[in-house]
UniProtKB/TrEMBL annotation:
Pfam family of the protein (one): Pyr_redox_3
Protein origin, superkingdom: Eukaryota
Keywords on record: Oxidoreductase
Keyword rRNA-binding: no
Protein name as it appears in the record: Flavin-containing monooxygenase
Source organism phylogeny: Eukaryota, Fungi, Dikarya, Ascomycota, Pezizomycotina
Molecular function in Gene Ontology: flavin adenine dinucleotide binding; monooxygenase activity
Keyword flag Oxidoreductase: yes
Entry-linked Gene3D superfamilies: FAD/NAD(P)-binding domain
Length: 422
């Protein structure tokens, strides 16, 4: 019996599914040569190199290891290599399959260099123009972390400076037969040396206009240096940093309220990652915040964030037209609040309109004649309650697919979860 409702969550993006299925079947039957574990780098990284356990390294970190002293030794070598621009010495500090992740401190971008050859190439390009100095330890103190009997690593945090930024590095090192080698290093620019964060406002209302009236005026009359299109996590975080650096910024968000990107998702959704990395700059979650944040709660947090940090945001607004002249100046026409057209002339325009793109629903033969009920994409799903007593097929087994199937099961619905791959 056909399901009465189909909820589409297929991840297809123009791939010939039938052809892929035929290849997979040939692989399983042994009539075709099986492909490598992965066609892309991330799978290769995840599955095709060994975790640096004691049996792989042939060395065990002693129980009485002086973490502070060993970390100081690594930092001395790191400081020497970065201070002199010695790319070979810098790369040699890493494990053969070590990883260097940089956020703005050396690359002015967010880059990851995987394994020693890529790290060496990057260092040869970057270190001649970016010297690092003034290394100092930050809290917490260096420690040997032993999550498993056969795996241990020395981890510590340091600050350092280049000519342009104050930065930090989180380092995790393992002990090898050739001494300590960095397994991962994560470098992050924390502050622009020539553009420090502004001091907070005094707050005393000694003028002729109240704080509330002043805020309304600032939001309505915004003539930004920077226009951010999109008021999700990235748009809000960038606006907050711009304001902290003294830049006039405006966010344009099409939703009715800040946070609707989460508040209007399906009712039983919680974020799938622990909240440790989900909060936004200058506004940490309270200590009692749940480990996995309910989506509606995350949306409220974003709304509180925008209000508390006094960010200039036009909601229910969309960009109609943009134009950039030969000198690089922007003219942007905005439909504000669905009621009026406003023109702004920012120096910079930032697209912060999500990393996931628009929902994709593949065309499947018979969709136009399907009589069982509704066909909807998971992005339009809010609740399974209306499907009670019906059969539901959920197509796709990524996060939203499992969430939707579980929501149906919770409501006592006969649900089938359909997955393309074996």
């Amino acid at each position: 019996m056909a399901p009465s409702t189909v909820i589409d969550h297929a991840e297809a993006n123009g791939v010939d599914i039938a052809a892929r299925a035929a290849v997979k079947q040939a692989e399983l039957s042994g009539t075709a040569e099986r492909a490598p574990v992965a066609d892309d780098y991330m799978y290769d990284f995840k599955y095709n190199h060994a975790l640096p356990t004691t049996d792989v390294l042939g060395v065990r970190i002693p129980q009485d290891c002086d973490a502070q002293a060993e970390a100081e030794g690594i930092v001395r070598q790191l400081s020497d290599a970065l201070g002199t621009g010695n790319a070979e010495a810098f790369a040699d500090l890493f494990l053969e399959y070590g990883v260097w992740r940089d956020k703005l401190s050396f690359t002015w971008d967010q880059r990851t260099f995987n394994f020693r050859p890529a790290i060496l190439k990057a260092a040869r390009d970057l270190l001649p123009t970016t010297k690092a100095s003034n290394f100092a330890f930050l809290k917490p103190a260096p420690v040997v972390d032993r999550p498993y009997d056969d795996f241990a690593q020395l981890q510590f945090v340091v600050s350092f400076e280049t000519d342009l930024v104050v930065a930090s590095a989180v380092i995790k090192a393992v002990l090898t037969k050739d001494g300590w080698k960095m397994y991962t290093m994560h470098t992050v620019a924390e502050q622009l040396k020539q553009f420090p964060e502004r001091a907070p406002a005094d707050g005393h209302m000694t003028g002729t206009i109240s704080w509330e009236a002043q805020r309304a005026k600032e939001v309505d009359a915004a003539d930004p240096e920077i226009l951010i299109i999109g008021g999700g996590q990235n748009g809000l975080a960038l606006a907050a940093w711009c304001k902290a650096l003294g830049l006039n910024c405006l966010v344009v968000e099409r939703s009715e309220e800040v946070g609707d990107v989460w508040k209007k998702r399906y009712e039983y959704l919680s974020l799938h990652f622990p909240h440790w990395a989900d909060d936004l700059p200058f506004f940490r979650y309270p200590k009692q915040w749940p480990t996995y944040t309910p989506a509606q709660k995350q949306g409220l947090y974003m709304s509180w964030y925008a209000s508390a940090l006094e960010l200039n945001i036009w909601t229910k607004s969309t960009v109609i037209e943009t134009e950039q002249d030969e000198q690089g100046a922007w003219t942007v026409k905005i439909n504000k609040n669905g009621k009026e057209s406003r023109t702004v002339r920012p120096k910079h325009v930032v697209m912060a309109t999500s990393l996931c793109g628009v929902p994709y629903t593949p065309t499947i033969p018979g969709m136009d004649t399907f009589k069982g009920g509704e066909i909807r994409h998971s992005s339009a799903h809010d609740s399974s309650a209306a499907f009670a007593g019906k059969k539901v097929c959920v197509v796709g087994t990524s996060s939203s697919g499992f969430d939707t199937a579980f929501d149906c099961s919770r409501c006592g619905i006969d649900v089938t979860l359909l997955q393309r791959s074996p």
